[in-house]
Amino acid sequence: MASVLTGLRRGVALRQLVRTMAEARSVDEMALTFAAGNKVFYDKVVVKQVDVPSFSGSFGILPKHVPTLAVLRPGVVTVTENDGKQSKIFVSSGTITVNDDSSVQVLAEEAHPLENLDRAAAQEALSKAQSELSSASNDKAKAEAAIAVEVAEEIVKAAS
């Protein structure tokens, strides 16, 4: 029985130590990891703010943001770095996680800086996707074409 109590005391002491160490870290900073299948944009870089498009609505993330898990919708993620410089990156889909230690992970299916988007190519892709949607013969084809239309519409908006 004494060894069980000793083990419990050690466990409580360890949890208190871990909590104290976590509290000692500055949550006034926000470390961003932002990656896609095609590129890593940020790897634990301290930034000022991240604005994301999600299916539950677009929202901004600052240090000390409430922990959150959301699904990204097609659109532009804006990262404001500590020096005020902004990076705008188009994402097709993915997830956003905000942790209680103020770290943020953006994991995108595909992502490209806005300056790499070609508006004419996006408009052409939108026309093709709309054509495929109107001629889709089954539910799967309709769903795939609808997704392609949504992504292409957002690329056209972002590239404008």
From TrEMBL:
Localization terms from the record: Mitochondrion inner membrane
The ATP synthase F1 complex delta/epsilon subunit N-terminal domain, residue ranges: 32-111
Keywords from the UniProt entry: Acetylation, ATP synthesis, CF(1), Coiled coil, Hydrogen ion transport, Ion transport, Membrane, Mitochondrion, Mitochondrion inner membrane, Transit peptide, Transport
GO molecular function list: proton-transporting ATP synthase activity, rotational mechanism
Keyword DNA damage part of the UniProt annotation: no
Pfam families: ATP-synt_DE_N (PF02823), ATPD_C_metazoa (PF21335)
GO cellular component, one term: mitochondrial inner membrane
Coiled coil location: 119-146
Domain F1F0-ATP synthase delta subunit C-terminal as annotated: residue spans: 117-158
Summary of subunit composition and partner proteins: Component of the ATP synthase complex composed at least of ATP5F1A/subunit alpha, ATP5F1B/subunit beta, ATP5MC1/subunit c (homooctomer), MT-ATP6/subunit a, MT-ATP8/subunit 8, ATP5ME/subunit e, ATP5MF/subunit f, ATP5MG/subunit g, ATP5MK/subunit k, ATP5MJ/subunit j, ATP5F1C/subunit gamma, ATP5F1D/subunit delta, ATP5F1E/subunit epsilon, ATP5PF/subunit F6, ATP5PB/subunit b, ATP5PD/subunit d, ATP5PO/subunit OSCP.
Family: Belongs to the ATPase epsilon chain family.
Purpose: Subunit delta, of the mitochondrial membrane ATP synthase complex (F(1)F(0) ATP synthase or Complex V) that produces ATP from ADP in the presence of a proton gradient across the membrane which is generated by electron transport complexes of the respiratory chain. ATP synthase complex consist of a soluble F(1) head domain - the catalytic core - and a membrane F(1) domain - the membrane proton channel. These two domains are linked by a central stalk rotating inside the F(1) region and a stationary peripheral stalk.
Protein name as annotated: ATP synthase F(1) complex subunit delta, mitochondrial
Gene expressing this chain: Atp5f1d
